[in-house]
Amino acid sequence: MSCRVVVLLSGRGSNFRAIVEARLPVEIVAVVSNRPQADGLVWAREQGLPTVALDHTEFADREAFDAKLADEIERHQPDLVVLAGYMRILSPAFIARFEGRLLNIHPSLLPAFPGLKTHERALAEGVKIHGCTVHFVTAQLDHGPIVIQAAVPVRADDTPETLSARVLAQEHRVYPQAIRWFAEGRLVNKCGCINLQDDSASQSVFPTES
Ligand code: NHR
Ligand code: GAR
Question: Ligand 1, from 90, 117, 141: best to mutate by most atoms within 8 Å of Cβ?
Answer without folding.
Answer: 141
